[in-house]
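Box S1 | Example of a co-folding query
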Amino acid sequence: MPEPFSGFSTRAVHAGNEVDRHMVTHPKAQPIYQTSVFVYESLAQVDDFLAGNPDNYMYTRIGNPNPAALEELILALEGGEAALFGASGMAAIGAALLGNLEAGDHLIASRELYGTTQSLIEKELGRFGIATTLVDIRDLAAVEAAIGPRTRLIYTETASNPLVRVSDVPALAALAKRRGLKLLVDNTFLSPALYRPLDDGADLVLHSTTKYLNGHSDATGGILAGDAEWVARARRFQINAGGSASPFEAWLTFRGAKTLALRMQAHSRNAQALAEALEAHPQVARVHYPGLPSHPDHALARRLFPRGCSGMLSFTLKGGLAEVDRLIHNLRLAVFAPSLAGVATSISHPGKTSHRALAPEILAELDIHDGTVRVSAGIEEAEDIVGDFVQALDRL
Ligand SMILES: *Cc1c(COP(=O)(O)O)cnc(C)c1O
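Box S1 (continued) | Returned holo structure for pyridoxal-5'-phosphate
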């Protein structure tokens, strides 16, 4: 409390602010730096900030210790030269693309992208003169044929939503390298505990940390990691466009990420058990999980993901919308919540949520039907998850 100013309102604003100033011990857990701005003691400290001292913070939109801690953590998990944390997965994707591409540039992307990513590419990038060709990302000849003189980037997801089709990242990386392009991989569905795209030659990796990295369905965020120049331009865009994350969201995600490896083992084990049980159930027409020998990418998944295939799977009922509604009603443990990757098992309906905007013929071509249900297997006991689905299906 600065002397001699002691008016009531002055005390209310200033008392207690410096409780940590002379602390003998440091907190074991990271504090939440819930502040929009930092205090400077001299003009020289401003010069030091502008010279790029990473321990000098000025304003939370530009930088804050909580997002910085998370960036350091993800860099240690994914590898790469630099990382950037943003307010959501889409903030990180937007910063990566809009911060690096220019009018006239071209990118090649998987046609099975996360819906909002596809919308960003078509509705926003398109308006700024950045063109995209959507391809079947597993058809390497089609990817190569789409390369033009202004192509800069190949964009894919490690595993697609909702059919969990796997991208051959090593092959795409080799192609990108040979043709002088960058490869960016959205690794949200696998997480670095199960797969590290940068190790297989990708230049950049992305996550919606809203999903597995945080894992508790209570914080929104996104991270970009990899090539230092791309991350630096993405950071400049994020500062200018204002997509920076809040300290509290970063803190929650930092806390959640500590148990990532343990959670991913449990998610993978439970998804495998559930996929096998669903495949054996008479009400189920098809199950899509790369851990099953029946999945078209099973061999590739075994090669890329030896530690497990994560908790995402989908299945198609023999029935349609009415049976899906009854399934939602019958499930006692799993809830219908159109997101994924939390500790609790949840289901979603791609046709009514994530893929709602697609025409019926496109949905049919993608093998997504009225009876298709996506599951995000949680970390509960496998017997309880399997038992819940079996009792719900038995009563359809
Ligand atoms: C959820 C998700 C995103 C978008 O992330 P938000 O945090 O919702 O902005 C991007 N890619 C994939 C694969 C996702 O699942």
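The chain has a mean pLDDT of 95. The pocket of pyridoxal-5'-phosphate is lined by residues 88-90, 114, 116-117, 157, 186, 188-189, 208, 210-211, 220, 222 (CB under 6 Å).
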